[in-house]
Please model this.
Amino acid sequence: MDKVAIVILNWNGREMLHRYLPTVLKYSRDEATVYVADNASTDGSLELLRSEFPECRQIVLDRNWGFAEGYNKALREVEAEYYLLLNSDIEVTHHWLTPLIEFMDVHPEVAACQPKLLSIYNKDMFEYAGASGGYLDRYGYPFCRGRLFDTIEADNGQYDYATEVLWATGAALMIRSADYWAADGLDGRFFAHNEEIDLCWRLRIRGRKIYCLPESYVYHVGGGTLPKSNPMKTFLNFRNNLTMLYKCLPDSELLRVMRWRWFLDYVAAWQTLLFKGHWGDFLAIYRARRAFRRWRKDFKADRVAIQSSRRTEKIPEQFDFSLLWQYYAKGRKRFSDLF
Model:
């Protein structure tokens, strides 16, 4: 069994592998085994691995299973104490793994952690996908130390301390294999987007802890699979976020939050159309709500199981305020301003 298995899920990411896999191998080979799990790429990714990176282990999947189920299938073929899910568009740094491993080794109550995520285009800025650790507001909107909605902060060391978070980014997520499977892994029905938040929230409900460890830092391209304005990304984000709320919110909050989200989602749809002219995103939000209504019954058993595993009614890292109100009404654009 490996101590650490770095598993990079790839789908038509040949150029990203060519550019960033060398840093992973260079700075990780002494502490981890590196795997690339391929989601049936057609761009020559496997040929690249065989010719340029023969030391990298391959897991070949039969079709594109998406991020969530792709990782589930790949990780079933890996034996390790710690999995490290790593995007193909990540540039790692010297000794990046050491703080993560050492922290997990001495904190058995911690299920998962992440490094600080910085932008590869401007290395003094946080990166959208996870920045310095993630949280949720009252209505399920995710935000990070270093990123509120589309406002990205410069990294001036203001969040350079280890802290508990609600979710760690799937772009660079270290997780105990025992915790991963105890929580049934990522929800493969999500395909992509919100799946790591859902998993981390389920782990927190079970009483496990999630941390961000900024002593370790990596650089992320971001948006490598779907561009930010892509209607499919909008659809997946809204549908999966609603599903996550249905699964994870306690009974005392579910009805109230879902009523508010019905209102807020339709406001978001019309705002997207009227102020941004994004017809595709407008339709995507309507389709997402319709898709959620249709498949909500499929998650009833999941909700029962998750709520029965609950150790505490209130999770501190889900804050009891509206991020929309803080951001748009009060003009608070930085994480530190929220408090």
